[in-house]
Design goal:
Layout (H helix, E strand, L loop, with lengths): L3 H14 L3 H5 L69 E3 L7 E3 L15 H41 L1
Antiparallel strand pairs: 1-2
């Protein structure tokens, strides 16, 4: 029987290798106070302004220190014009540069994710994954048992045809 901690370790190991741990878990909310792992699609600021594409230099040139690896999406282009927080030192939430020439940047209204475990995984997600893994494990065992039964039947049939 798989334990929750083992399931979480497997999920985090797989996910971290492709940098999607938060995308799987919290795309509609900020997984941390600063929101560095947020991968949702909010593209409007608290003031109602549209976000500028992160890969665009107009009307505002983004800080040159924000490289592709600063974004949970994997690149500035993949982050499109969504609210993000590429600055690990900024802890007030996700934000974006705006298309308003008079307003360089502004925070976005993205709520914090509900209760999370110490590793940052949403508790409901963890429970759902545990249930899914146990169901998959049960299904696998049933299929394996069915395969063994079918194989035994096939052997008996083959034995009969050889002996007749």
């Amino acid at each position: 029987m798989w334990r929750l901690s083992r399931v979480l370790r497997v999920i985090m190991t797989v996910c971290s290798s492709v940098k999607t741990e938060y995308r799987l878990i919290c795309s509609g909310c900020r997984p941390t106070q600063g929101g560095q792992g947020y991968t949702g699609s909010v593209s409007q600021t608290v003031g109602g302004r549209q976000c500028q594409r992160w890969s665009s230099n107009s009307p505002h040139t983004p800080y040159s220190g924000y490289t592709d690896s600063s974004f949970p999406d994997g690149s500035r282009a993949a982050a499109e014009n969504y609210c993000r927080n590429p600055d690990p030192n900024y802890q007030d939430g996700v934000w974006c540069y705006t298309v308003d020439p008079d307003k360089r940047w502004e925070l976005c209204d993205v709520p914090m994710c509900p209760a999370t475990t110490a590793s940052g995984i949403h508790t409901n997600f963890a429970a759902a994954m545990t249930h899914s893994v146990m169901r998959m494990e049960t299904d696998f065992l049933r299929q394996t048992r069915l395969t063994i039964i079918l194989s035994a039947r096939a052997l008996r049939m083959q034995k009969r045809s050889l002996c007749e």
